[in-house]
Amino acid sequence: xxxxxxxxxxxxxxxxxxxxxxxxxxxxxxxxxxxxxxxxxxxxxxxxxxxxxxxxxxxxxxxxxxxxxxxxxxxxxxxxxxxxxxxxxxxxxxxxxxxxxxxxxxxxxxxxxxxxxxxxxxxxxxxxxxxxxxxxxxxxxxxxxxxxxxxxxxxxxxxxxxxxxxxxxxxxxxxxxxxxxxxxxxxxxxxxxxxxxxxxxxxxxxxxxxxxxxxxxxxxxxxxxxxxxxxxxxxxxxxxxxxxxxxxxxxxxxxxxxxxxxxxxxxxxxxxxxxxxxxxxxxxxxxxxxxxxxxxxxxxxxxxxxxxxxxxxxxxxxxxxxxxxxxxxxxxxxxxxxxxxxxxxxxxxxxxxxxxxxxxxxxxxxxxxxxxxxxxxxxxxxxxxxxxxxxxxxxxxxxxxxxxxxxxxxxxxxxxxxxxxxxxxxxxxxxxxxxxxxxxxxxxxxxxxxxxxxxxxxxxxxxxxxxxxxxxxxxxxxxxx
Length: 481
What we know:
two-stranded antiparallel ribbon; 19 helices
């Protein structure tokens, strides 16, 4: 599960024609460069996460059944979001970064075109799968009665526009692969500004505009992605874009498809495992009624909020690792990886501890049903203190995409799935206690982070290249270009 990467000589690496943004990834001080590039990207990811939170907030005003219906659909929406932005998007960004690191600009342009073809194909596949199999899936996850109907109403609208989600995230991935984090950030933040009034307008109606209920939130979401696509296409057509999207000058070639898909499809295994773990936990919570589904779904949104936050750091890390490996700088790629892992742990653990100590303020944003509050509190207190391990595993997943080495992130995700599924089922059978089900989810996060970190530290990419022997040496290296 690795991709052969070209090497170039030092003279070629430092040739005058190298783009300034690429030079920064190859030569800039690691931690300051990562933080500088991550800042706008974290902003874009927080804004993108806010899209889902805005919807949840307003849908929660429609009642517990609507909130439970959205909780049923949300893991599948996030599966699509994480697959398009994180998994396949990672394959796209990694291919762009490696091509630019090896100074193959024409190939990077071709990657952009091939990425759009892939996005259209996967968007259609998601649309057909959920329009046809949605009822069966949501019923399997515990949906019944009014909550199941609400889930189907929301799902049919969202997945009818799945192609929009895929194209938007793929365009953003192309741009991030060049090291440009600002443009996707600006476009996403501007879209959220539009979405804030648009979502309640379409859900509840106003004046001559009729309220559409839960379907209104889905329509608002699709309009957000449509406007974002237009903005990103305008940027790529401008002189400021490092790459050009030209279907007329690029011939479709299987090797380029294979380069993207080899990373993207393997990454998708990890993404599916992550969302399947949450889907299984949702189904287990369903044994305790719609209130428990709503409570777990609302609380676990905090874990989903961590995904875009860590993605904000992981995207520039992916670009740096991919560019360095494309230029033959393996040791620098590893140093950047461990720097990113440390930052991710601190960020995720801080959020998890705050949620465990003060769960109700978060939950009360979305409703005040007693059963929902109780289940959500149980989850956050059991799992929140272990979020740091989730942050480490996730950021190492992005770094592994840049390296083209996806074996251990896949293994880590599959082990998380096994522990979360089997452990949760055993907890339910042996104790009948929802808290014990959530404890199994927390243990699964620890397994996830530890497995991936241990494998990379043990030479899981390409041996022990660049692994510092002492903490002081590690800190010294991270401070150097």
